[in-house]
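Dear support,

I submitted the protein below through the web form. The confirmation email said the job was done, but the results page showed an empty box. After a refresh the structure appeared. I'm attaching both so you can tell me whether what I see now is the final result or a partial one.
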Amino acid sequence: LLLCQHSPMINKTFGCFYIFQLFITIDLTQDFHVENIDLARVAPSEESETVEINYEITACHCDESYSCTNEVQIQGSDLYICVFSNEPNVDIISVPTVHLKHENVSYIIVENNVEDSLTEVTTNLNGGNLAVIRTQLISELFNSTNPGNLTVWGDVVLSFVARRRLGEPLLEYRRLMAGIDGETEMEGFNIEVSLAASSNGIVEE
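What the results page shows now:
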């Protein structure tokens, strides 16, 4: 019996191996009489193989319910940045750095996993696939009748975790996760947020 393993998630066949072998003993001196039939189970040899998972990390300006939005950011309201992983086996475990830049103003709100006094980072949302950065923008960013866009960029740390999908064969799941469980990787994100003009009735600080 030949057994092959294929993972639809990463579109890859791991390999084939024999799980049973059939042995037939024939006596050639007695008109090819079958003397014995044995069925032996063959233990497959262990092999190390690099596994690749196709995933995407996306970020957006979001609202309090963590839904992406194109609304203009007004002075005095909290800015929410959502970072998503589209793969159940890829968690966002930390946000080590976040930078903000608007025209000649540039500053860091998260550095070495430490937030400033106006910023809060939350991970382990949506089963581990979502991280949210909430911050208050300084008033200097709104001192213009045409402020343009604020650029937000940073890094997230990903963790590849052994999380079995509903209906996924156990043998396939074990072979897939054996090479990646516990591994980490860093990815970057970069978005732009529209700012409200100071002439829109916004009360300056």
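Response: this is the final, complete result; the empty box was a page-load delay. The chain is about 5% helix and 50% strand.
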